Amino acid sequence: MSLTLALILAAQATAAANPQADPNAEQQTPQTPQTPQTHRDEGRLGTAQQGGGDVVVTARRRAETIQSVPIAMSVIGGTALAETGTYNVNRLTQIQPTLQFYSTNPRNSAANIRGLGAPFGLTNDGIEQGVGIYVDQVYYSRIASATFDFTDTERIEVLRGPQGTLYGKNTTAGAINIITRPPSFTPEARVELSAGNYDFFQGKASVSGPLVDDKVALRLSTSITTRRGTIYNTRQQEWQNSQDNLSLRSQFLWHATPTLDLTLSGDYARQNPNCCVQYFARVGATQRPLNRQYAALAAAQGYSVPSTNAFDRLTDVDTDLRARQELGGLSLVANWDVGEATLTSVSAWRFWHWDPSNDRDFIGLPITTVSANPSQQSQVTQELRIASNGKRALDYVLGAFYFWQSIDTQGLQVQGPAASAFLLNPTSTGGRNPATLNGLTSRNTIGFTNTSAALFGKLTWHVDDHLSVSPGLRLNYDRKDGSYVSLVTNGAGSTALTSDQRGVLAPQNYTPSFTNWNLSGDLTVAYEFNPNVHYYATYARSYKSGGINLSGLPLDAQNNPILATQTVRPEKVNHFELGLKTQFADRRATVNIAGFWTEIGDYQATVNNLQVNVLRGYLANAGRVRTRGVEIDSAFRPTSRFNVYANAAFTDARYTRFTNAPCPPELSGGTALPVVNGQIVGTPAAAGTPGNSLPYCDISGQWLPGVSRWAFSYGAEYDLPATVAGTEGQFYLGYDGSYRSRFSSNPSRSAYTDINGYSLSNVRAGFKAPGSWNAFVWVRNLFDHNYYELLATQSGSTGLIVGQPGDPRTYGFTISKSF
């Protein structure tokens, strides 16, 4: 019996034991995170663009105004999401400077906050993400869920910094807390339709109302998004990187007793785009012999790409692309008001099915003809919390959390007739004979189970009317068990492999296991100088769970797997933060400032192993990382017709110690000593023996990948009252802009994979009648700026750099109606 069901029975027993209760009394909705009583969606971007009034959030698992919560956070309301076209996490980054999201396909995605969260460019099911994604309090363990469309969303809270003492799953970098619109006892309906260039269409609809007066309410929601691809494949004669999304959601709210609410939710989402392609961006020189670099290799095959300008948006990859995924689940949330506190139970089951097809050589030659890792995941979570009601001398949140996950993956990789030329040394035994690697096939069977349990709590002692002290603790247990079996056969179907073949795809069989207990905590001291000025200081000591390698192990000199590298230790995080939250000018202006300093030991990243001269990267504990910075969120409403916002983030994120990192493309195949910040480091022994390529590079002091030093978002909206067709409302003109400075797109920084800074501008103009309808035209990437979301290297270190361009200019219109 789940804890949620136990709550139902307990509440019913309590009601039965109180015969004097008036059954006809007015229903009192418990003060719970699901049903805050004072939330207003007036601020289009919460603190980012509100400039007045209060925005109620549930970041600390109780309803509070955002200005009184001593956490660096931002809130985006449902209206803002619609008007800015922010319908998934990737688009959310344009209005959230400290949030980074990168995705080459849904499985290979990463969400980072302040540069931390997940190893950049690496997918390994055996480790966890540092940024938690929650939808209506349910933890989503697969980062692929962030690629789906937001459906019937009331608001999104982005919390920055460790959150392990407040949330079910431990999150060391932050959390994205998505709250959907709850069922309503007042009948209502919403419809939103959008259309634009590239055959873009998006339709959203929801309906809600009572099934039993004052007892049971229902909400049904759906979202459909389709768009033609923006990249044209000249070989397959089709558009690629399209969108094809479907989301369905249902919720039942039951007022079981005057003090007990239950919400049963079910959702299903499906994506089936012709996606995802990265393709030729540029070529960089390496230290390999010229006949092993891209230009010579392509010329020897008589090959040239359709265009050497990536922004012509042409490719000729010769493998069919597919990125089909299905995601869904059920949850039951119970909130029981027991007077002094509210008891909450969150029971959930979720699944994720992944069916891909990729072209991992990124060009039109048959090097890797098949690359796919179909995967099926199930997860079960149970969270039980008790939180004090109202504000008292001692507020508290205490909870227990259980998480179980199972993943089954069936990997397949097949090499083609051009593989020998691109991947083998011509002086090797197999040379460049196409038959050496043609048909070489790896079939991987991967199993994984993950169990996590925790006790957590947060107390807030109000020393007086101004000063509060909030300690938090978390006791966490993690266990991960895996199985990795890779069966490799040659083109004749035999398991008898040559040294050349084992160097490209080596058979492996291992069963890693990891178990760990850890205790983490935090302490926040907050001071309210007056109702409009709040200070806080936070120290947190947290852990990101250790893990196991489930993408294959590095090989020794005999091409055998190194079993000592099966597991990865937890990351150890020390986090310091100072914050100031202010409102002034009769609350028409809001300025919030946060400064942070975070250090991580045993950072989980891709490394190389010097002792056995391994030249292949794998997941391990790299060393130490430090990120520090300052964030400013500001919003102003000078008049009732005009509002403006500006957010800024300065983030200095670096490896403080990383001595065995993969070398950047410039040093691939070289025997020169490693170079760090323009200085030669190391000793001849560390550089390997003469004639051998570098086994590693020391990149201590370099940037962390994926994070810009400077990031901004800014915008404004002006409206004029008007009456159209007898409906009172206002015409409005809005602008939203963003900027990100140069960032590295490779674990080891390279001049070839640095992405230049870029700015984006979006505009909209229309007419809206609040609570009724809204119609507007929009243009995104107004100036058609060419920019890359990602750059990466081709397998084999040939010097080919491939890219994933961002969207070109898009335009269209949106009309929505509320009934």
Short description:
This protein is 6% helix and 51% strand.
Helices and strands in order:
Elements: H1 3-16, E1 56-57, E2 64-65, E3 73-77, H2 78-83, H3 89-92, E4 99-103, E5 109-113, E6 131-135, E7 138-140, E8 153-160, E9 174-180, E10 188-196, E11 200-212, E12 216-227, E13 231-233, E14 238-240, E15 243-257, E16 260-271, E17 279-283, H4 294-300, E18 314-315, E19 322-337, E20 341-357, E21 368-372, E22 375-388, E23 394-415, H5 419-423, H6 434-437, E24 441-462, E25 467-489, H7 499-504, E26 508-510, E27 513-530, E28 533-544, E29 547-548, E30 567-568, E31 571-584, E32 589-601, E33 604-607, E34 618-621, E35 624-639, E36 642-657, E37 675-676, E38 679-680, E39 710-724, E40 727-740, E41 743-744, E42 754-755, E43 758-769, E44 773-780, E45 788-793, E46 800-805, E47 810-818
Parallel strand pairs: 6-9, 13-18
Antiparallel strand pairs: 1-2, 3-8, 4-5, 6-7, 8-9, 10-11, 10-47, 11-12, 12-15, 13-14, 15-16, 16-19, 17-46, 19-20, 20-22, 21-23, 22-23, 23-24, 24-25, 25-26, 25-27, 27-28, 28-31, 29-30, 31-32, 32-35, 33-34, 35-36, 36-39, 37-38, 39-40, 40-43, 41-42, 43-44, 44-47, 45-46
